[in-house]
Design a protein that fits this description.
InterPro entries: DH_E1, PDH_E1_Alpha_Subunit, THDP-binding
Domain Dehydrogenase E1 component: 17-305
Structural class: alpha/beta
Number of helices: 11
Keywords: Oxidoreductase, Thiamine pyrophosphate
Bound molecules: thiamine diphosphate, magnesium ion
Low-confidence stretches: none
Cofactor: thiamine diphosphate
Protein name: Thiamine pyrophosphate-dependent dehydrogenase E1 component subunit alpha
Strand content: 5-15%
CATH superfamily: Thiamin diphosphate (ThDP)-binding fold, Pyr/PP domains
Radius of gyration: 20 Å
CATH architecture: 3-Layer(aba) Sandwich
Shape: globular
Number of domains: 1
Strand order of the largest sheet: 1-2-3-7-6
Distance between the termini: 52 Å
Amino acid sequence: MGSSDTQRREVYEHLLFVRRFEERVLDAYESGGVPELPHLSIGQEAVGVGATYALADDDWIAPSLRTRAPILMRVPLETVTAGMFGTRSGPSSGRTTQHHMGSTEHAILGTTGMVGSHLNAAVGAGLSSRQLGIDRVSMVFFGDGATTRGEFHTALNYAAVEDLPVVFVIENNLWTEETPISEVAAVDDLVDFAGHDLPSVIVDGQDADEVVDVATEAVDRARRGDGPTLIEAKTYRYRPHAEVIQERRPKEELEKWKRRDPVDIYRERLLDHGIADEEWLEEIDESIREEIDEAFAFAAEDPLPDEEAMYHVYKDVEVDRNGGVVR
Ligand SMILES: Cc1ncc(C[n+]2csc(CCOP(=O)(O)OP(=O)(O)O)c2C)c(N)n1
Ligand SMILES: [Mg+2]
């Protein structure tokens, strides 16, 4: 990565922030306090952080259900945290959690519960940039599972035919829920779905510098008007698909990937290159933990949405204000 020491420290801060936030979410979930079911990205942070780092603030991002990094890098922490608790300061004032959230203000396209459904929305954002003559690249993150869906192939094809400014980022964590992607994809490397006319690249998704480099090249290409790129980041999640799902992946596989932890890799690099010292690393960790604690404390006090928030969403609304249960 051809960037300055300051930029590298920034990348590390983002990596650690996402890690600490999700650890805190897991902790809160396990102690019974999060209404939203966590689908954690712990282990995959370098993909979201590195690729988002390559974008300008107003470039569009369409995250997958698991991509937390861009949301945490762009949206105020209190909004995201309140979203998990379904309180009034969350996205849409408590009508939705943060799981599929979008925010026009932060150039984040909301996704839906349907795997792959956001790919064509991201291509549409790229098309609108081109039609309007504005310089806004569109980057879409999705899991390996989405590459078996029709939406992926429609999106790739249309973006390639029209040379749209879109960057496709596959977060290939090798599993689609409890199925190994190798059993359901007709190619070994998912970039092979790109065919001949669409540039594609495989990247080590555990190394944020490498992700920044390939994403920067793809974003530059999109900005020049040379069209889309497909990036396949090989990565792994440390947690089960969602916290209610029993872990069935081989223990040795998980242990192997943990030895290439994205936060550890980056921390060691900063130390080896004299970009940071232990004291700075500890200070950053402490201030991140404090910031997250404050956001959780904020959400704990944040009121539930007004009953009116549920009008035109559910029929015959009844809100139990003590438990916040909507019947
Ligand atoms: C069309 C569709 N089929 C099935 C599901 C249920 N489902 C939710 S997430 C998921 C797995 C997605 O796997 P992948 O795309 O690899 O993303 P990852 O969870 O690994 O990040 C499935 C099957 C769904 N939401 N939508
Ligand atoms: Mg997957």
